[in-house]
Amino acid sequence: MKPFVLLATRAEEVPAEEEYALFLRHTGLDERDLVRVRLEAGPMPRLDLDALSGIFVGGGPFNASDPAERKSPVQHRVEAEFAALLDEVVARDFPFLGACYGVGTLGVHQGATIDHTYAEPIGVVPVTLTDAGVSDPLLAGMPPTFETFVGHKEAIHSLPSSATLLGSSPTCPVQMFRVRSNVYATQFHPELDLDLDGIVVRIHAYAGHGYFAADELELTLASVRRAEVSHPSRMLRTFVELHAR
To answer: Which of 48, 89, 126, 221 is 20 to 30 Å apart from 214, CA to CA?
Structure first.
């Protein structure tokens, strides 16, 4: 089988390792078949799409809607690298699934309006599939409404005509969309599922980063510990089943 690639941008070691472990677990792939590239550590290598089965993108600290002068040199580099990669991915309709930062990368590439209007604090929200989402092969077997973990400072305000809306939550109208047939982005985190270790690690790692108030750490932890999130990771394994070659 040709490998999949996980493009990651987390600089913090513990959540970075936890994210990779979760993608490995829920895709069913091993490290040979899911190759991680840490973009915060160095330039994106040349990705030969003919030698790959598909691309995953994890979450990360970069906000696409930040003013250019507030973006670090690393963020400017990563954004330029994604722009070039997505030119080829979209043109070829190559399998791509971006989680959370996927919205900032694919959304910008397609000309979506991204701002702070529909930001969501770290927590659990219900995502309801559109008619297009219900019939999408990546979401086969998913209930029409499911709980999932979110936490983001920006979101898509409006989608361009090139994108198909697949899922929404009450506080964020664009939770998932597709471009062409095989290029996807989610605002939520499909890798955070079945157990709470991943989200708890991230809550501790990103306390003080503006996702929740300084005095809300325990409230945030309590809110996710009451959650029963058990469906979103299915789409990661389905993505592999659909596109492994």
So the answer is: 126
**What do you get for the CA distance between the two ends of the chain, in Å?**
5
Query: How far apart, in whole angstroms, are the C-alpha atoms of residue 20 and residue 147?
Result: 22
Please tell me the predicted confidence (pLDDT) of residue 92. 98
Q: Are 67 and 24 in contact (CB under 8 A)?
A: no
The CA-based angle 245-99-69, given to 5 degrees, is 125
In this structure, the number of other CB atoms found within 10 A of the CB of residue 107 comes to: 28
Confidence at residue 197, expressed as pLDDT on a 0 to 100 scale: 65
Delimit the domains of the chain by residue range.
Answer: 4-243
> Under CATH, which number does the domain 4-243 receive?
3.40.50.880
Cα 68 to Cα 33: distance, rounded to the nearest angstrom = 36
Spans of the chain below 70 pLDDT: 194-227
pLDDT tens-digit readout, 147-178: 988 888 899 999 999 999 999 999 999 999 99
Give the whole-angstrom CA distance, residue 77 versus residue 98.
Answer: 18
54-57 vs 120-129, strand pairing mode? unpaired
Supply angle C-alpha 109, 114, 115, rounded to 5. 155
pLDDT at residue number 223? 61
Task: State both tokens at 242.
Answer: 């659909």
Which residues is 169 bridged to in the sheet? 172
- What is the amino acid identity at position 24? L
In the 8-state DSSP scheme, what is residue 79? H
Cα–Cα distance between 143 and 54 in angstroms, integer? 25
The C-alpha angle with vertex 105 and arms to 182 and 137, in degrees rounded to 5, equals 20
The encoded tokens of residue 216 equal: 């809300």
